[in-house]
Amino acid sequence: MTTSQADFHDKRLPNESPEYRAARNELLAEEVSLRKQLEHVAALRRQLPSGGELKVDYEFEEIDLSDGGTRPIRLSEIFGDNTDLLVYSYMYGPDWESPCPSCTSVIDGINAASRHVRQQVELVVIGTATPAQLYDIAKDRNWQDLRLLSSEKNDYARDYHSQPGETSESLMPVMNAFQKESDKIRHFWASELLWTPMEGGHPRHVDIVWPVWGLLDMTRSGRHPEKTPQLRY
Asked: Residue 149: exposed, middle, or buried by beta-carbon count in 10 A (0-12, 13-18, 19+)?
């Protein structure tokens, strides 16, 4: 029996043709393979050796999204009772008129998922913009479940490659993961696809946490080659 003839399940949709079902079964076999590969990569990620010890216990300003107030907090304190910390670096500098629309779209999704993720690990978004700028965009986007921090006064963005150049024009949207090991904090993983040349151009290094593209990929039209998320529609 060929893959196209295999019956993965007994569900059939209204008026589908035998040709459709055969092709859909072939695609389903690929989807099963992709799922297994994603789980394999996640398992390999978890097996990484310990990364480099935290260079500095950076101090940030955490923004209270209810009123815009701030409090100083060190990276070691962000963990709370958790041993794992995810940090998304926001492309929004203190001299920018507005933030990166694509980053903002990613954070829209992170905001919605934050309360669920934080049942298991800590999760924050960090921008080099001022606390006031970050509060304004949070209020505009109705971010309420997010932990939002400013690194305006420290070198976190430079050290962890979110700002590889001298100015904020070089800002990049890196995802970093850190792990607390007894009295030490170590880097665990970064979205290094960002710096890895790939055939086809854009590395799409955070697609795995960006709902927009996953939804579009389920349609026949797919991703439009020119349309990208916007701050305003």
From this structure: buried
For residue 68, give both structure tokens: 């815009």
Query: What's the rounded Cα separation, in Å, for the pair 43 and 38?
Result: 9
Entry field: residues in the chain: 233
> Residue 189: what are its φ and ψ, rounded to 5°?
-160, 150
Q: How far apart are CA 154 and CA 167, in angstroms?
A: 14
pLDDT along the chain (233 residues), means of 10: 65 95 95 97 97 96 98 97 97 97 96 96 98 98 97 97 93 96 94 85 83 92 91 93
- Other Cβ atoms less than 10 A from the Cβ of 130: the count is 19
Q: pTM for this one? A: 0.91
Residue ranges covered by each domain of the chain: 18-47, 59-192
Question: Contact 84/188 with Cβ under 8 angstroms?
Answer: yes
Amino acid at 37: Q
Which fold is adopted by the domain 59-192? Glutaredoxin (3.40.30)
The token pair that represents 128 in the structure block: 């080099």
Cα separation, 154 vs 73, whole angstroms: 12
Q: Do 174 and 165 touch, CB atoms closer than 8 A?
A: no
